[in-house]
Design a protein that fits this description.
Blueprint lengths: L6 E4 L15 H14 L3 E5 L5 H13 L4 E7 L2 H11 L5 E8 L2 H8 L3 H16 L5 E6 L6 H14 L3 E6 L6 H14 L7 E6 L6 H10 L4 E4 L13 H10 L21 H12 L16 E2 L2 H9 L18 E2 L7 H10 L6 H17 L5 H12 L6 E11 L2 E11 L2 E8 L3 H13 L4 E9 L8 E9 L2 E9 L2 H22 L6 E2 L1
Helix pairs in contact: 1-2, 1-10, 2-3, 5-6, 7-8, 11-12, 13-14, 15-16
Bound molecules: acetyl coenzyme *A and 3-methyl-2-oxobutanoic acid.
EC number: 2.3.3.13
Subunit structure: Homodimer.
Pfam families: HCS_D2 (PF22617), HMGL-like (PF00682), LeuA_dimer (PF08502)
């Protein structure tokens, strides 16, 4: 077995699913298992077969249908558990039984109510029983992190003799710190007789927020299997997050020196990481926090002026890995109160605006005012800023009067009066809702019917006096125009936005010049 390969053991479907509220149906488990195989994990822990008929069936179906990874199931050090695991795993081409028993004084005394010698006997018997079903047997001394090291050495030596092939060292309650966990792995690797015939594995929980750091310390000290779960799912604060482990090893491969061979390898196709993370989040309903490493919405987002400037000049100034490596389309440049001139100018260019220096300065000043009021400034806002600040459009159409009637059991109707080049025209119309009715009446009054492509409204200020700001995007003869309107009355804001877009469309038609992507 090459010593520079790290095996990724995914326990999303077993320990991950033990997260309160994360339960998955059998088809959902199968879907995740197939994606884990596409991601390239080496081992999938599909469930705890004895614990329920659904767990048994899910493990059996994963064993039957998922090709590639080794499929494993968990079993206590009890014949009934091991037999259930053996049966559920039978259809798998590559299978492993993972059996465990607690070894810490606290667990042995209070939970198992058994003396250490009996625990050793149960562990040995469990491994021997598992070997009757499979050649590949993993043993875990549960709560190893709080176990006495001489006892760990004794029980691990005994299970190796009994036929265990992987020795997993769980920090079950996330108690250990990285240096300590690394030293534990180094000690076991050095002192357990026969351990060189086995793979040493980490299984770290995140109660102190150091599950990934502990796992990496384990790898640094000779562990070559890492147990982890997608998005860090798992009991309590979760397990080591698969995506973080993989990208740490991928990005810093040479840090984990390995007898001079240069670095560590894995079987993972990192480009599948984002897709896998999203799938698990959607199916479990566990939302990913925006600042989560690797897969959070902000993991490859930049807003601060100095950072964006650096990134635009050379990506590696602020990105230690590329978003493409995990299967994302690219980095996200967010416009907000921290954006600098370089970032703003770049976005204007991307949107198709060619601004002179003075125009850019004027637009940037207005942008900062808006950014101070909003968390994020969108492309539509940039278009509106440039429209308002830089390109003053003549108001051919002006909304003079608007009346809307709508409510439960009422057909929404609107009447408008619009001033068009000095003359006023009135119209009334019905619609699917008050905004639709108002737009229909405006179309009627102006005689123009551009296609409405997008409509959005949001509160610009807080409280019950909040200003609503409507943004519309209309299309005419293949050209897009953005209009904006603000009012404390959201229907009025919507009508103003539509009229604004029509004015921009009319101005562009009059000059008939080639327009950028979003017309001014
Ligand atoms: C650290 C971990 O993640 S361990 C895995 C945790 N996962 C789960 O618990 C999965 C869901 N669990 C279940 O479905 C159930 O708890 C079962 C089917 C496993 C067992 O259910 P029950 O038989 O009703 O027992 P219960 O869960 O209440 O208690 C656990 C029993 O197993 C014993 N036990 C716990 N771990 C082990 C072990 N590794 N080997 C042998 N016995 C064990 C306990 O001492 C207790 O035995 P007791 O009844 O003699 O006191
Ligand atoms: C069963 C073992 C590996 C476990 O989940 C733990 O100790 O956390």
């Amino acid at each position: 077995m090459p010593d520079d390969k790290v095996f990724i053991f995914d326990t999303t479907l077993r320990d991950g699913e033990q997260s309160p509220g994360a339960s998955l149906s059998i088809p959902q488990k199968l879907e995740i298992a197939q994606q884990l195989a596409t991601l390239g994990v080496d081992i999938i822990e599909a469930g705890f077969p004895v614990s329920s008929p659904a767990q048994f069936e899910a493990t059996r179906l994963v064993a039957e249908q998922v090709q590639g990874p080794v499929i494993t199931g968990l079993a206590r050090a009890k014949d009934v558990d091991i037999e259930a695991a053996g049966k559920a795993l039978a259809p798998a081409a590559n299978k492993r039984i993972h059996t465990f028993i607690a070894t810490s004084p606290i667990h042995m005394k209070h939970k198992l109510n058994k003396p250490p010698a009996e625990v050793v006997k149960m562990a040995v018997a469990a491994v021997q029983c598992a070997r009757q079903f499979v050649d590949d047997v993993e043993f875990s001394p549960e709560d190893a992190g709080r176990s006495e090291v001489p006892f760990l050495i004794e029980i691990l030596a005994a299970v190796i003799e009994a036929g265990a092939t992987t020795l997993n060292i769980p920090d079950t309650v996330g108690y250990m710190l990285p240096y300590e966990y690394g030293q534990l792995i180094a000690t076991l690797k050095r002192d357990v007789p026969g351990i060189d015939r086995c793979v040493i594995s980490t299984h770290c929980h995140n109660d102190l927020g150091v599950a990934v750091a502990n796992s990496l310390a384990g790898v640094q000290n000779g562990a070559r299997q890492v147990e982890c779960a997608v998005n860090g799912l798992g009991e309590r604060a979760g397990n080591a997050a698969l995506e973080e482990i993989v990208m740490a090893i991928h990005t810093r491969a040479n840090f984990f020196t390995d007898g001079g061979s240069g670095g560590l390898t894995m079987n993972i196709n990192t480009k599948e990481i984002y897709r896998t993370s999203q799938l698990v989040s959607q199916l479990t309903g566990f939302v990913i926090q925006p600042n989560k490493a690797i897969v959070g919405a902000n993991a490859f987002a930049h807003e601060s002026g100095i950072h964006v400037d650096g990134i635009l000049k050379e990506r590696s100034t602020y990105e230690i890995m590329t978003p493409e490596t995990i299967g994302l389309g690219g980095s996200r440049m967010v416009l907000g109160r921290h954006t600098g001139r370089h970032g703003f100018a770049d976005r204007c260019r991307q949107l198709g605006y060619k601004l002179k220096d003075a125009e850019l300065e004027q637009a940037y000043a207005r942008f900062l005012e808006i950014a101070d009021k909003k968390k994020e400034v969108f492309d539509e806002d940039v278009a509106a800023i440039i429209n308002d600040e830089v390109r003053v459009v003549s108001q051919v159409y002006e909304l003079k009067y608007l009346h809307v009637a709508s409510g439960t059991g009422t057909l929404p109707t609107a009447s408008v009066r619009i001033r068009i080049a000095g003359q006023e025209r009135q119209a009334a119309a019905c619609g699917d809702g008050p905004v639709d009715a108002a737009y229909e009446a405006i179309r009627e009054a102006t005689g123009l019917s551009p296609k409405l492509e997008n409509y959005s409204i949001r509160a610009v200020t807080g409280g019950k006096e909040a200003m609503g700001e409507a943004t519309v995007r209309i299309i005419d003869a293949g050209r897009t125009f953005i209009g904006r309107g603000a009012s404390t009355d959201i229907i009025e804001a919507s009508a103003k936005a539509y009229v604004d877009a029509i004015n921009r469309m009319t101005a562009a038609q009059e000059t008939n010049g080639p327009g950028p992507k979003a017309e001014l």
